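Sample entry as discussed:
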Amino acid sequence: MRRRVLIRSAVVVTIVAVVLGGLFAFQRKLVYLPTGGPLPSAGDVLPGGRDVTLTTSDGLELTAWHFPVADARATVLVAPGNAGNRALRVPLARALTARGLSVLLVDYRGYGGNPGAPTEEGLARDIRAARAHLTGRVVYFGESLGSAVVAELATEDPPAGLVLRSPFTALADVGRVHYPYLPVRWLLLDRFPTREHVTRTTAPVTVVYGSADTIVPPEQSRAVAEAAHARTVEVPGADHNDPVLLDGPELVEAITALA
């Protein structure tokens, strides 16, 4: 009897170890959901658009789209979320350029046909390459995971303004919401501690979030706003990927107000 119990226990431990090992090994496939290329040229997407190449500190060449506006009072550096590619952010670029702002749409490594594989450290290098491409007044806009990316950048290179859309407090915090029975904090390779970053920036911050967000709990976005002493814009009834949070008037106005 005792031997049977020991065998069963060993089987359970083995299964758990295999499952956790698999999750550890393939976790970045769950975090990063890139859409590849090829993509059209920037000029075919919006009139006056320019294709640019950004060179990272570890030697990658990343493609991006720059949409300059004559006499723009600022450029908006857009740090996208974890899914898709920059083509999904064109409606936002269109809305912002119509308001007199230049826009740089980037794709991280592994996204939009770019080389490399995404990691927290890699995305930090990517957004720094994008920032180095710009001169003059710059506003950072981060979308979901991109909020953590620009919040970290702002700690060493403060922008004119920082707009965070649907930010989570830290990747482990949002991971626990969706995987409550897993030791998420122990397993994660990438941290993205947004709340920690915003306590170390001097830039004015606005947090935009949907009250019905099923991906990032609204209370996490509010916690980030509280830590940053930020202005908050709650969009009633909006879920994480609803169009109103991609290029809606509340979001566009929040960005424009800090430009």
Observations:
- The longest strand covers residues 61-67.
- Residues 140 and 165 are 11 Å apart (CA to CA).
